[in-house]
Design goal:
single chain; 244 residues; four-stranded antiparallel beta sheet; 4 strands; disordered C terminus
């Protein structure tokens, strides 16, 4: 009886996993990411990956994740109890079948395309009505199209922008598919007249636009930044200290 109960309960767990994989996919999360994160949430393992930000930064996914964490903790207790002790006489097999049937029914309904379409519209409508823009992950705000790109460009003495204005280096910048969001200079963020501001060494320019356009316009500066950052990562501590 114990093994039979565990078998049914494992089927319930698998059905719950598939249900929440569908729900996460309806929030535009990829299938492989959805399944891994659902299993991670239920088991309490592996949820420290960088992909967890996709869950934590999304209000609807956070609500789904909360239920999974609680359900996973409850399921672990049930499984341990079932393995270590004999099932009580009060537990009826018929009730288990009802619970399993209910979960399977929910799973079957969620597999219907019409139901998925309605739920997807409902999720998006709820987000538009109730979610502040600041609550959304950066990639959901900026990366709405395949060509969208966000770049934090570090400026060095060798950069073409050093001690120059963006308007001087890039002609007709207003007609190009990119914008400068702000210039970070130490603790300051410059947002006014940024195209006509002289760029200093150590500045960080946050660029947004089409990927091809950004990499074409700032090709040399990007190459210098990558080389500088790469060398900084491989510089021995003793060598770095002696250069100070």
């Amino acid at each position: 009886m114990n093994l039979f109960f565990l078998l049914i309960y494992f089927l319930i767990i698998m059905a719950v996993i598939e249900i929440f994989v569908i729900l996460f996919r309806l929030t535009d999360l990829k299938l492989e990411v959805s399944r891994f994160q659902v299993i991670s949430l239920m088991t309490g393992t592996g949820f420290t990956t960088g992909e967890s930000e996709l869950i934590l930064g999304h209000p609807i996914r956070r609500k789904l994740a909360t239920f999974l964490i609680l359900f996973g903790a409850f399921s672990l207790a049930v499984i341990i109890s079932s393995i270590s002790t004999i099932l009580s006489e009060d537990l009826r097999t018929k009730d288990i079948f009802y619970a399993a049937g209910g979960v399977v029914l929910v799973f079957a309904i969620l597999k219907l395309k019409s139901v998925q379409t309605k739920l997807s519209k409902l999720f998006k409508q709820e987000m538009k009505q109730n979610i502040e823009l600041g609550d959304l992950p950066m990639r959901d705000i900026f990366m709405s199209e395949e060509q969208d790109h966000l770049l934090n460009l570090h400026i060095y003495k060798e950069s073409s922008l050093f001690l120059k204005q963006i308007s001087q280096v890039i002609q007709n910048y207003e007609d190009l598919e990119f914008v400068v969001l702000f210039i970070k200079r130490g603790e300051l963020k410059l947002r006014k007249n940024i195209y006509h501001t002289k760029i200093h060494e150590g500045d960080q320019i946050l660029l947004f636009g089409e990927e091809d356009v950004i990499f074409k316009l700032f090709k040399d500066d990007i190459k210098i930044m990558e080389e500088k950052l790469k060398n900084a990562q491989h510089t021995p501590v003793s060598e770095y200290q002696s250069s100070q």
